[in-house]
Every structure is written in structure tokens, then in C-alpha cells.
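Ticket #4471: structure export looks truncated?
Reporter: QA, pipeline team
Priority: medium

Steps to reproduce: submit the single chain below to the structure queue and open the exported record.
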Amino acid sequence: MATALKIKTADDLWDLYEVNPVEFVKDTLGIPPTKQQAELLMSVVDNKKTHCRSGRGIGKTWGIDFLAMWFLSCFHDAIVIITATNNNQLYDVLWAQLKKLYERWELKQFFEILDYHKTMRMINHHSTFLVAKSSERAGTTKESAMSGFHADNMLIIIDEGAGVDDVIYNSLEKSMTGVNNKMVVTGNPVRGEGMFYDIPTKYRDYWNCLKFSSLDSPLTDKGNIQKDVEVWGIDSDMIRVNYLGEFPKHGSSDVLIGLDKIEHCVNNVDRQDGLCQIGVDVARMGDDLTCITILEGNALTKILTYPKIDDFNQLSGIIVNEIKEHKASSVKIDASGMGIGLVDILRQALYVLQLDCKVIPITFGMKATKPSAYCDNISEMWCNAKTLIDNGEVSIPNNNRLIKELSTRKYSIDSKGRIKIESKADYKKRHKQSPDFADSFNLVCYNPYNITDIEITATGDDLRKGY
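Actual output as written to the record:
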């Protein structure tokens, strides 16, 4: 440890560790870096610019903080700037972990943390400092928020670089005018576009490019990874991005269904005869649409849309006409909120008309049939649609809005390893419209517990109790 090495001044640090960050981490933090972390550390010694794309769980956050503490300690009047894709990643992850490491640091007597300013600086030598710098500062442009730093010894770290605006890259690179200025960019390769993608492709000659797989890290659970490989496939974007450190084959990897798979299903799948089913996504507010989809066999043959209809008797009449025309065997209705009322009215109408068609209420946000795999039944519906589309088992029309909604809904993985689909509110914030077409499509394709083959007798009161 550093105490045993009798470090008394900054000069001692420079002499011992300026070109040996791996030993610095071992001696001053008591942590032996993994092989991948050591490779990242040594890349910064040997190269002006380092780009590192990686899978998840490899200890990237610690690796970044190791770099920051080493550079801050081992270079005269050093400045370290850390930024990230958003304030949560910057402050709640990187800065929080840095503070934990500081508490065990053998060199903490030489440095102080100013938590309010998200700054660490050398005591009695304030020109040596580290700052966690946000690009989201109120009253500034992204470029101006990152400008103004210059020093002979400066390390710039950008984490989760795939989500960082190109303007930030350009602003920080302009600051690199000193003789010992370094830049490190790390992150999961979630997008096949932007500066994080361009560096290892267009600008590779100017960067040392690293790629770390979760399969090669001693910090990851290989059993969990193997389970995901069995579910998704080794060449899927989910595995490529989250574990292999590879860029997605198409678009953004946090989108659940690939555009190429969807386009393949547009009038390009052999149609199979079968029962006719109807899906109804009921408009809830504002400019949301009530969307009705008709699935005949394995083909989506018709999409009907209406502005928000408050009169459920009128909406029930429209659905009844479609049941008669297509001889539908079942109608699946979004029974969330106002949809509960439509279920009761439609059932009563079918009873009076003596039409043999089941009305199946599906309440969005309820427990999935496979709760170990999906956070809720919405996530399960989307993954069911993904399976049908990926396998080419459903034919869809060339409807631009349906294709857009299916190809742009994002997902995440929660702490239990379950799929969680992006909330409708977040989707609407990004696209300024509700995914009504896709929701209706997912409803009509969804078949939990083989519900089209059993009698559903729930009433509106049952649904309000969480049937």
C-alpha cells in the first residue's frame, strides 16, 4: 500500500506511477485491476486517444475512476474532466463510485472532495483538480458547457459515449491543445451511428480502439449470459450490444424489433387460413386514436382508426359490423381505463344479436404469464409480436405508421434480467403520438393462456379488481 511506500509528496507519486497506472491502483486502492481494466489503463499511457466499447458488467465504471485518480495524482497541475450521456450516469454512477473509492484511498490525505461542485482537488494545490462536468447545465449551450478547459496535463473521459451529442465531442477535442492531453471514450455500442460509431470506423487511424466482451470478464455471471444467448441468439443485437461489445446490425440496439425483420413481413409471408380475430386499442385522451385491427389467419388484413369516441354504443356498433363481415371468433379489447365499459356493452350487444364471438378483455400493465421473463403483460405482448415478426410468421400491410411504431419502441432489462418495454408516456414524448397501431396489433396477436380457446366470463367489476 502507499503508506508502506512512504509517499509524502506529489513528486513521489510522479516518480513511481506516471507510466504504471496498474501498480498505482494496486498500491493505493488495494484492488488488482482485471485484465480488461489493465488494458484500458495502459492504453491511456501509450495513446493520446482511446475508444473502448464493451459489454455490460465488466467493471467499466471502476476502470474509468481508476484512470481519473491515477492521472490526477501523477501529473503536475493535472485536470481531469469526466462527462457522460446524462446527469444520472454522471452523478449517480460515476461520481458516486468515485467517492466510495476515495474513502478507501491511501492518498486521500492529499485530496479533498467538494461534493456540491462535484469536484476533487489536491489540498493546497488547487490547480490540480477533477470535475464531473454536465452538459445539461441550465442557461448554456452544450458546447459552451464543455468549453474553457486548457492545461498541459489534461485527461478527458466521456462515458456512455454512444448517447453523447457530437457537439460535446467537438467541444472537448478543441480543448486538447496541451502537450499531454488525453481523451478516453467508453460505453456500450448501442447505436450504429454518431461519433461513438464513427471513431472505430471513419477515424480509427487517430484512436486506439478496444473492444471488451462480457464473456471474457471475471466479473460477469456466465450462466445468466448463456440463458440470454439461448433466448435471443448469439448474433442478435441484444447479445451483440449488451455482452459482446459489438455494434447493432441495424439501427439502435435498444429498439425491440428490427426494421429489417418488419419489412420482411410486409406482404412477404405466405398466408395461412385460420380464425379471424379483432384487436381494439381504445383511445384514452387528446389526439389518441381508437385503432381496430383485423387478423385473418396469420395475416393482418385491415386497420381502422377513429378519433376518440366517447359513445361506446357507437364504437360497439362499429365492432359488431366488423365481426359480421369477417366472421370473427374473438375480439381482444384494451380494458385499461375506459375500455372496461366497452367490454360490457359489446358483450351485451353480441348476446342480443346471438353472435358467437368471444370478447376478451386484456388490461395493460397486469402481471405477465411469464413473470420471470417479462416485467408486465405489455412487455410480454411486445416480445410475442417480436417472435412472430422475427420468425416471419405474420403478414402485415405496408402501413407506414404501423411499421414506424413497431420499429421504434424501445426496451430495457431490469435488475432481475426481465424485459421491460418503454412506457407509452416516454414513447409519446419522443414521437409526439401514441403507438395506437402497434398496441392494437400486439393485442390481436397476444394469446395468454390460450384465451381464444376458453370462455372468459369476467365482468367490468372483475376487471376493476384486477382480473
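Status: closed, not a bug. The export was complete when the record was re-opened. Leaving a note from the reviewer for reference: The first strand starts at residue 49 and ends at 54.
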